């Protein structure tokens, strides 16, 4: 498998639509955005468009376990992860999957020259890897068929 294939491939197929929320919004609004878009994380940007945090479903659930139903009134800034692990568009899909697995998180903002270029999930990376495996299997099947025809 091509260990060197970069995230550009995934982002090109996925598009550059990134769902964001302001740090001052409450978790009820964040939960609504997550549900509406069928996603697992939101990116939080400051007024100048710089990445300041990420909020995942897990962050909300973890806080709900501590705070209870009052969690929905808390501001995103109070719950979001501030020390965000990021990657670069030129990083390999495999290296990003390894970092996500090791860090036990499922979403990673992708930067291009310090500018937010997209958000990749472990699901996006896994889907990409499965497509590569299918392509390799198809090529192997073609090769086997050719070899069998040559024997005739």
Low-confidence stretches: none
Quaternary status of these chains?
single chain
State the shape: elongated
| Strand numbers in spatial order across the main sheet | 1-2-3
DSSP summary: helix tally: 6
Describe, in plain words, how this protein is organized in 3D:
The protein is 49% helix and 18% strand. The protein has 6 helices and 6 strands, in the order H-E-H-E-E-H-H-E-H-E-E-H. A 3-stranded mixed sheet has the order 1-2-3. A 3-stranded mixed sheet has the order 4-5-6. Helix 5 (93-103) crosses helix 6 (122-151).
Descriptors:
three-stranded mixed β-sheet, alpha/beta, 18% strand
Brief overview, please?
The protein has helices at residues 8-14, 27-37, 57-67, 76-79, 93-103, 122-151; strands spanning 20-21, 41-45, 51-56, 87-88, 107-112, 115-121. The chain is of the alpha/beta class.
Give the SSE map.
Blueprint: H1 8-14, E1 20-21, H2 27-37, E2 41-45, E3 51-56, H3 57-67, H4 76-79, E4 87-88, H5 93-103, E5 107-112, E6 115-121, H6 122-151
Parallel strand pairs: 1-2, 4-5
Antiparallel strand pairs: 2-3, 5-6
């Amino acid at each position: 498998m091509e260990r060197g294939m970069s995230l550009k491939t995934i982002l090109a197929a996925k598009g550059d639509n990134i769902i964001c929320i302001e740090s001052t919004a409450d978790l009820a609004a964040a939960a609504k955005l997550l549900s509406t878009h069928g996603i697992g994380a939101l990116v939080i940007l400051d007024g100048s468009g710089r990445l300041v945090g990420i909020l995942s479903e897990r962050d909300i659930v973890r806080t709900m376990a501590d705070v209870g139903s009052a969690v929905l009134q808390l501001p995103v800034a109070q719950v979001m992860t501030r020390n965000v692990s990021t990657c670069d568009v030129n990083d390999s899909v495999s290296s990003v999957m390894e970092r996500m697995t090791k860090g036990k998180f499922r979403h990673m903002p992708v930067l291009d020259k310090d500018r937010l270029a997209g958000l990749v999930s472990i699901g996006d990376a896994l889907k990409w890897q499965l497509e590569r495996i299918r392509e390799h299997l198809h090529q192997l099947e073609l090769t086997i068929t050719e070899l069998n025809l040559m024997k005739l």
